[in-house]
Amino acid sequence: MVQLQLREYLSKDDFPKSGVMKALFLDAGVFGTAVFDGVESEKFEINIELTTGDHRTWTMNKTSQRAVAEIYGTETDKWVGQAVELFLMDANVSGKIRKVVYARGKQ
């Protein structure tokens, strides 16, 4: 049997109880447009492979983009095949506290 990899979006539910995991970049990502609360903004999405082998699309926030660029540089084609550590953190999103995915930079 074939298991389809539909590249669903990364969410807090993909994380173990520790709230920290490793992932692998599968491609260089793409820029697009997001609409949130009626406001258009630029978004950056990149496909990753989780330690479970599942594939997800991650909409990276600017903080995570900077953290990964600190490690691998700003040319995202150089990220392909590289590992990244992801973690969950509470953040205020439009007045509501939500779990947000971040990447760790150099320490």
SSE pattern, N- to C-terminal: EEEEEHEE
Number of domains: 1
Mean pLDDT: 92
| Major sheet details | 7 strands, mixed
Secondary structure tally: strands: 7
User: How many separate helices?
Assistant: 1
Q: So, CATH architecture? A: Beta Barrel
> What global shape is seen?
globular
Q: Which regions are unreliable across 5 or more consecutive residues at pLDDT < 50?
A: none
CATH class division: Mainly Beta
Q: Measured on Cα atoms, how large is the radius of gyration?
A: 14 Å
Strand content: over 45%
Helix content: 10-25%
Give the class from helix and strand content and strand pairing.
Answer: mainly beta
Measured between the Cα atoms of the first and last residue, the distance is: 43 Å
Indicate the CATH topology. OB fold (Dihydrolipoamide Acetyltransferase, E2P)
